[in-house]
Design brief:
binds tetrahydrodeoxyuridine, globular, Cytidine Deaminase, domain 2, 6 strands
């Protein structure tokens, strides 16, 4: 038996004003998309914006359903739309902003496991890393240089 260590590196910016200006703009688009979140059940509103290599920005927000599992997260709403509309374009960056209407969310909110799995599919398909930035409504912004960094030991097509 041997122990295997898996390391992930993240970068933490103290404030959204400290991130690169193109990503600030992307985060602003994510924030605008968040306004359209439909989250009457959780009251947790999430916005995501994706920058493609054709310079297009695709956004999404979480969309809930009375049948809870039928709803979809913001990140997957955005990435599936990007895949459907621009199947040949590479995804360069994703910005995510999230928070509850019940309290002020100051902690960076990372994408859930299912969204990580979905984003991983596109990172593998395009053979280049997707930068992920995430934050709460305010406060620190966390950057991951790739999705793989957020999901060690991921399940991918190589095992099928
Ligand atoms: N949600 C997202 O949109 N993205 C995530 O990565 C985690 C959770 C949404 C789903 C649901 O509408 C609400 O947040 C509470 O889980």
């Amino acid at each position: 038996m041997k122990e295997v260590k898996v390391e992930s590196n993240f970068f933490v910016y103290e404030d959204v004003k400290d991130i690169p200006s193109d990503v600030q703009q992307l985060m602003q688009k994510a924030s605008e998309a968040r306004i359209n979140a439909y989250a009457p059940y959780s009251k947790f509103h999430v916005g995501a914006a994706i920058l493609l290599d054709n310079n297009e920005v695709v956004t999404g927000s979480n969309q809930e359903n009375a049948s809870y599992p039928s709803g979809l997260c913001a990140e997957r709403t955005a990435i599936y739309y990007a895949g459907a509309k621009y199947p040949k374009s590479k995804i360069l960056k994703m910005a995510i902003i999230a928070g509850s209407t019940k309290t002020m969310t100051t902690k960076p909110i990372p994408p859930c496991g299912a969204c990580r799995q979905a984003i991983a599919e596109y990172e593998i398909k395009q053979e280049s890393p997707i930068e992920i930035y995430f934050m709460g409504e305010t406060g620190k912004v966390v950057k991951s240089n790739s999705l793989a960094n957020l999901l060690p030991l991921l399940f991918d097509k190589s095992v099928l």
